[in-house]
Design goal:
By secondary structure, this protein is of the alpha+beta class. It has three domains: about 5-95, lambda repressor-like DNA-binding domains (434 Repressor (Amino-terminal Domain), Orthogonal Bundle), CATH 1.10.260.40; about 100-185, FHIPEP family, domain 1 (Glutaredoxin), CATH 3.40.30; about 195-280, Helicase, Ruva Protein, domain 3. It contains 15 helices and four strands. Strand 1, helix 7 (about 115-130) and strand 2 form a beta-alpha-beta unit. Helix 7 runs parallel beside helix 8 (about 170-185) and helix 13 crosses helix 14. It starts with a helix and ends in a 10-residue tail after the last helix.
Length: about 290
């Protein structure tokens, strides 16, 4: 592969990964610390990103340097067809979805006009006020399901199943109501490292002191995921993500690092205080709000 072709291929891969992560050129440029014009030049194959920018691109796009540089394109088909090879690699990268609604043939019509997009937007907005970042929901028909049957899955694990009764209207809005309950009640099963990284990147905007030099330098994303899942199992919510990061930062400065279970207990004490308004209301459901003083 000559220099010009290699440069074009790198640009194509950067653009492909950016679109997969639903980022605009400006959003990605801000994440990696370059101008949108510079990023556009990378994607069009007009210039190479330097090593520092390449590292930032890999982090922002959750992509390996080998992939962006085209070094992992080993021959995997008998005739070395690049289009087929790219499709195979794409399928392998997307073999499991964190969240999906799969349905029988009678339900397909509920999604063909894209009217559900506003419903999905409103759901994301409501969940975000609770600290929940919902991943992209994959929608697809599955011939193994009955015509009026649907399932909600996370990594192919069924979190909800229903056969819509004959005579009951079929609508995307109805299924998204069920999806909302599933996301709230099973967020620990849906949460993944990519979502943790996105939540952390967003938190950096207003709370950089909590993140810079801590995540992922001293506290890896995988550890944050483990702690968040354990806290969700305890009944805590992702609304306290800043306190979780703060607690992990404190733990990272301890002389002797505790176990994950001890870390969860430590952070739970920061969150599950009796003064917390939700715990206060749960403990005293009949109390008038004025009694807090």
């Amino acid at each position: 592969m000559d220099h010009e072709t290699a440069q074009l291929e790198i640009g194509k891969r950067i653009a492909e990964c950016r679109r997969e992560r639903k980022l605009t050129q400006e959003e990605l440029a801000n994440r990696v610390g370059v101008t949108a014009q510079a990023l556009s030049q990378y994607e069009r194959g007009l210039r190479y990103p330097d090593i520092g920018i390449l590292r930032s691109l890999c982090q922002a796009l959750s992509a390996g340097a080998d992939y962006l540089l085209g070094l992992e394109d080993k021959k995997i088909t008998e005739f070395d067809d690049p289009q087929i090879q790219n499709e195979i690699w794409w399928n392998l990268r997307h073999s499991l979805d964190p969240l999906a609604i799969e349905f029988g043939e009678d339900i397909v019509a509920a999604y063909v006009d894209n009217k559900f997009v506003k419903t999905a937007y409103d759901l994301r907005l409501r969940l975000s006020t609770e600290g929940i970042l919902m991943p992209i929901v994959k929608l697809r028909d599955w011939t193994k399901l009955q015509p009026r049957e649907y399932i909600i899955t996370a990594y192919d694990n069924i979190l909800y199943h229903e056969i819509i009764a004959d005579g009951q209207p079929i609508s995307a809005e109805y299924m998204f109501e069920k999806l909302e309950a599933v996301v709230r009640n099973h967020y620990g099963e849906i949460l993944n490292v990519d979502l943790i990284k996105d939540l952390t990147d967003n938190l950096r905007t207003n709370h950089s002191a909590l993140i810079d030099g801590i995540v992922p330098d001293k506290v890896p994303y995988g550890q944050i995921l483990t702690v968040c899942r354990a806290l969700l199992d305890r009944g805590d919510t992702m609304k306290y993500f800043p306190k979780i990061i703060e607690g992990l930062g404190e733990v990272s400065r301890m002389e002797t690092l505790p176990s994950d279970a001890e870390i969860v207990t430590y952070i739970a004490k920061l969150i599950e205080r009796k003064e917390n308004k939700w715990i206060w209301l749960q403990d005293s459901p009949s109390r008038n709000r004025r009694d807090i003083n």
